[in-house]
Structure prediction request, 107 residues.
Amino acid sequence: LIANGDARADEIVAPLIVSGQANDQRLISAYAEKKRYDKIAEIWESRMRAVPSDPQPRFALAASYYAIGNKKKAIETLVQTAKDIPAIAAQAEQVIQQIKDGTIKVQ
Prediction:
């Protein structure tokens, strides 16, 4: 549905996003193909709330913000991640520096 641009796709996917269960790579890839990074950010925001101790959704959320051009929000997300999960603070700081330097690659 998403790949075809079906308007009903957002309606179908919405409950999954709200529940934090929409982090399926096929769904994310479909949104990425359509350059719907705003929807990808919604998915990761929800997943981050559902599993706050998992750093992966936080890094993915920061990447989504960066992809839509919101460097400030990407950095804020990573700063908060470093505070909330000190074990990955060094990794978060590296990514923050790459964002500031313009050397980060988002796939």
